[in-house]
Amino acid sequence: MGMTMTQKILADHASLDHVEAGQLIEADLDLVLGNDITSPVAIKEMDKMKVNGVFDKDKIALVPDHFVPNKDIKSAEHCKCVREFAIKNKITNYFEVGKMGIEHALLPEQGLTVAGDVIIGADSHTCTYGALGAFSTGVGSTDMAAGMATGKAWFKVPSAIRFNITGKPSKYVSGKDVILHIIGMIGVDGALYRSMEFTGDGIKNLSMDDRFTIANMAIEAGGKNGIFPVDDLTVEYMKEHSTRKYKIFEADPDAVYDEEYTIDLGKLEPTVAFPHLPENTKTIGETGEVKIDQVVIGSCTNGRIDDMRIAAEILKDRKVAEGVRCIIIPATQSIYLQCIKEGLSEIFINAGCVVSTPTCGPCLGGYMGVLAAGERCVSTTNRNFVGRMGHVDSEVYLSSPAVAAASAITGYIFDPRKI
Amino acid sequence: MENARGTVFKYGDNVDTDVIIPARYLNSSDPNELSTHCMEDIDKEFVSKVKKGDIIVAGKNFGCGSSREHAPISIKASGVSCVIAETFARIFYRNSINIGMPIIECPEASKEIEQGDDVEIDFNTGIIKDITKGTTYQGQSFPEFMQKIIDAGGLVNYINEK
Fold this sequence. Notes:
The complex is a heterodimer.
Chain A lengths: L4 H9 L10 E5 L2 E5 L3 H9 L12 E4 L9 H16 L4 E2 L8 H7 L8 E4 L13 E4 L2 H10 L1 E5 L3 E7 L8 H12 L8 E5 L8 H9 L8 E3 L4 H10 L17 E6 L6 E3 L7 E3 L10 E4 L1 H4 L2 H11 L9 E4 L4 H9 L2 H8 L2 E2 L20 E4 L15 E4 L2 H10 L9
Parallel strand pairs in A: 2-3, 2-5, 3-4, 5-6, 8-9, 8-11, 9-10, 14-15, 14-17, 15-16, 17-18
Antiparallel strand pairs in A: 1-7, 12-13
Helix pairs in contact in A: 2-5, 6-7, 10-12, 10-13
Chain B lengths: L3 E7 L6 H4 L10 H5 L10 H4 L5 E4 L11 H8 L4 E4 L4 H10 L3 E3 L1 H6 L5 E5 L4 E4 L4 E4 L5 H9 L2 H7 L1
Helix pairs in contact in B: 7-8
């Protein structure tokens, strides 16, 4: 029986010729990632292990990004703990404030993730790197600790769902609309324990940033990972960002999938997920009149340069509606600088938006845009659970940057094509 | 492993890690402090009512969302002896095993057991007894490898013993 793309990468890293769904394996890791929330717990766990330091100082990435620049004293203590650990263990890829970015935008940009890698990260959105043709998945702090100590992790080999992507998206339909459409279709546990493998000739019509957004939200369908085949665009991206050697894996022609879906990009509409689950999707024509108080454009899902450019295109020479706060967060320092160079920051500020240094901040209700009771936010982030962005009686509507920018201007959830 | 026995707190589908332990408390990693906010955004009374040994029973996809180990840590530190669900989100499932917090998948028990029932779990056999209702259920057993991690009391001890 043939193997899926994910299974082939896992077999390779477990030094096995063949693996099957359900098999328990131990795989070698190319990168272990942690942030300021999860690393302190991992560091505490690693202290209890009878090991002498980390397995490889070059294969660990520590990115304080959730509550930095430090939002309060306790967060400062967490960051201090991570910083001291990084210094003590001579971690090559520790990213201090000023160099840091939101981890899942930062690592590909820094060339730390390439096709064929096996990556674990103590952050659920670690699945993002599947856009490059890597196997990457979110784990908890104890797995991170074990990964840092041993360079290995145990996995149950997943079965897969195949999404055959065809067609070309129309104006203002982006990767976010694709993944929201999929989650709306299969549900928040529709891919539980399984891989989401994307294939098809429509993929060439998706930019790398679109693919990062799609792979990023595989976890919101319960997926273990989301993965794209490597094409010319992927290779070009890796050559531009990385000096590391990559390895291209392809699914066997006779690989077995649990389910298969075909998605015609040309038929997709801008899509919004209503509170309080990412599966509660409606197309923009079905949303009705939803008045909003805040817009957030950023996060590991949609804080990349494509996202900033689309938001700026819509916000140019326009003003944020009276009574609406619009918070824009470029995901890395490099994207932030690019926004300045291209004049996007000026467009945002002239429109009445706030432009922030990179941080996960409001996405998880940390700071930089926490909601009060009864408030509604259109956000390009990834979760709209109860209380996710603040008060338990606040509401988050997930959308693309185009819908978010259009909504900021009108004060209602709005179709960007009608601006 | 000793049997668990306690009173049931019952919840629905898709209980996410943001309601188990809201991110506003993630500036701490102290288990006892985290336990004082456990389930706060879904059940404000949980913290004041939960007793050592009590059991959480929920629907499908329990623990979906963030990878924060703080979620199972806060549940364990609040005294809960086991979580029974129809299914678990995969990162929560891994984290629970890795920190040595017992969890069992059992669709029938997840559907039929109700809030306040007195329930006993035999971890050696996977048998769940609802003493209030007089019913029994067979929970799914763990693969041998995971059972070894659980028996060692978590992944850290397992690696240390290896």
